[in-house]
Amino acid sequence: MTAGGGRDHLPLPGPGRGGHTRPVQDLVPIAVWLVELAWLVLTVAGVWRTFAKAGHPGWTALVPVYNLVVLARVGRQPGAWVLLLLVPLVNIFVLGLLSVHVAWRFRRGWPFGLGLLVLPIVFYPWLGFGQAKAIP
Prior knowledge:
Elements: H1 23-53, H2 66-74, H3 81-84, H4 90-105, H5 110-118, H6 120-129
Helix pairs in contact: 1-6, 4-5, 5-6
């Protein structure tokens, strides 16, 4: 209460109610979400096409854990390597090896394999939609 008997209060936020709006800041989370969605779709599409070129069903790129088994098969490695992906720090090394083996399967070198590991959004679509053909 104030000395004059009225109540002190803060204005409610929003247009026409004395508050301020932040339209640009409100759009940032939506923009970030759209970029993440595009990143995901492009990467999954590249992995899908890569699996299909290697003779495996493309939809397996969408199945968690099983997609790693198929990745090992594309790289001609035992599916049991997926268990090594559960071990911290070892998983980075094993995923790097799998990526290099996948690159070799498509007649690409180890630098391309490291690209598959570090920048999958670029290298999987390049591999899947490009001219590369899997070695039978």
